[in-house]
Amino acid sequence: MTAATSPTSEPTTPNPPRFRWLKRLLVAGLLSIVSLTAIRIWWGAHARQLLDAELAARRARGERVLPEDFATSTIPDSDNAAVILTNAGKAIDEDAPCPSSSNLSFANYFPYPKSWMLMTEKAVVADQKALTLARHSRQCSGADWQIPMRWDAVSSILPNYGPVRSLANLLGDAAVLSHLNGDDREALERAVDLLHLSSSVDQQPVLIGHLVAMGIEAVATYRICLIAPRLTISDAASPAPPATAPATRTQVQALTARLLDEDSHRATVAKMFEGERAMQLSMLQDSSARNIVLRPLFQLQTIQIVRAIDQHVTAATQPTWPAVRTAWSTTAPSGTGGMNAITQMWNSILMPSMIRAMQADFRIVLVRRAAAVSLASRLYQIDHKGAFPPSLQALVPKYLPAVPLDPFAADGRPLAYILADGGSRPIVYSVGEDGADNTTPQTVFPRTPMYGWELNAIDQWTDLSRFEPASTHPATQESTDSAAEAGND
Q: Where does residue 13 fall: left (phi above 0), alpha (psi -120 to 50 degrees), or beta otherwise?
């Protein structure tokens, strides 16, 4: 037997086999886990530090950023305008709707048919509780709509605002009815009720609430412009017609000042942006809480969203609509610009909504200024034996502190004025969203009155007189309407 075949020879390979490469993989895997854990800890601390710094900087400016920053002291229901106004809206009798809440269509200017009068009178009688609550709410210290400042609260917002929209329609029609019945003092009080309703809704700093508030303001300003041309005033130079309850000069001046008070209006817009930012960030907070591994990514994303909304706020603080558009085009992120896909998605959703909201906001600014001019023009007319002001400058300083500026004019010019139809039809106007003054003495104006925003107008005109073309008088116009109108001349 040879040595090669000897049964006592030792094996030359380990048994079982030794997998040194597996040990190396295990060691490498453990080192990777330790390294990734260390990187994740550093990444999380770094992202948290950056986010805290961003939020602290804004809180230092007095801004509210996250949902928890909006915690406020509870207002008792008896002193909460939101509760009272909601109850007022719910108290409206659906079996006796006012014309504006019905399915019927009426012209938005005088003269109204008797059917409108009867329908409104029925609604006012049936809804005395709602009207009384709306007036009472003006004595409340604030309005808390008790809507959580979270992204998933939208479903709870809309039901809260449904009743107040019905209440706005009722107040608007009731104001016009009071005017037609010769009670101009009550007509202006109803207009103040509407403005209070709008400002109460706007105390909840969310975009949807602001849009609803602007809609209510549109109802109020339209009625003011509709009523103002034949408003009776008790302490004017010309005596008031008999059997009426005229408005007082102090009442008219206070309403004019309120319409021109834009400091509080701009502050409300700023709060609306704060609220929208908090709602958007609440979604990122929820995503962050559910994903521990990627939490730093969501925190860094929160910083991007905060900065993007800051750019929107910067643009929104501009004094005119052209300035807003310019600022938005220069501050809004374009392309990637360092943004990731999530930031671009947020901007594509958020920015169009904000732009449309600001566009609507400037429309409301314009109609508020036009309504103030209409009231001032009426005071001038009464003090000057029925003559219309020769210019808007003639209203300064006795009736207006200054001629209101045109929010759609890039050069900061004041609102324009023209005496159309041979001087019998005074019109205050804005250049409109295209920024160009297209109105000339030869302009052919619509043969229907204009008292609010017109979507298809070349410029935005507001009549300062009760313009009633003969073609609009219905053949069935009742004598009661004519008598009510005659009492307001």
A: beta
Asked if residues 321 and 360 have their Cβ atoms less than 8 Å apart, the reply is: no
Peptide bond into 16 cis (omega under 30): yes
Q: Which residue has the tokens 């000897």?
A: 6
Residue 61, SS3 per DSSP? coil
Q: What are phi and psi of 320, to 5 degrees?
A: -135, 160
Contact 301, 342 (CB under 8 A): yes
- Walk across the sheet containing 460-463 and list its strands: 416-420, 425-430, 460-463
Task: Residue 405: name the closest of 335, 322, 467 by CA.
Answer: 322
70 in Cβ contact with 64 (< 8 Å): yes
Alpha carbons 312 and 331: distance in angstroms, whole number: 8
Q: How far apart are CA 431 and CA 435, in angstroms?
A: 5
Find out whether 429 and 437 touch, Cβ atoms under 8 Å: no
At 461 the three-state DSSP class reads strand
Q: Is 5 left (phi over 0), alpha (psi -120 to 50) or beta?
A: alpha
The tokens describing 312, both together, are: 């929107």
Q: Hey, is 207 helix, strand or coil? A: helix
What is the rounded distance in angstroms from the CA atom of residue 346 to the CA atom of residue 341? 9
Q: Which helix (H) or strand (E) holds 254?
A: helix 249-260
Query: 70 is written with which tokens?
Result: 């909006």
* Low pLDDT (below 50) residues in the chain: 1, 334-339, 471-489
Q: What residues pair up with 405 in beta bridges, in sequence order?
A: 414
- Backbone torsions φ then ψ of 425, nearest 5 degrees: -130, 90
List of residues 6+ apart from 115 with CB closer than 8 A: 104
Contact present, 485 and 176 (Cβ < 8 Å): no
The 8-class DSSP code of residue 142 comes to: B
The residue written with tokens 């999380």 in the block is 44
Instruction: Indicate the burial class of 60 (C-beta count within 10 angstroms; 0-12, 13-18, 19 or more).
Output: exposed
Other Cβ atoms closer than 10 A to 307: 13
- Give the pairing of strands 425-430 and 416-420: antiparallel
State pLDDT tens for residues 380-402: 999 999 999 999 999 999 999 99
Name the 3-class secondary structure at 10: coil
Cα separation, 427 vs 418, whole angstroms: 5
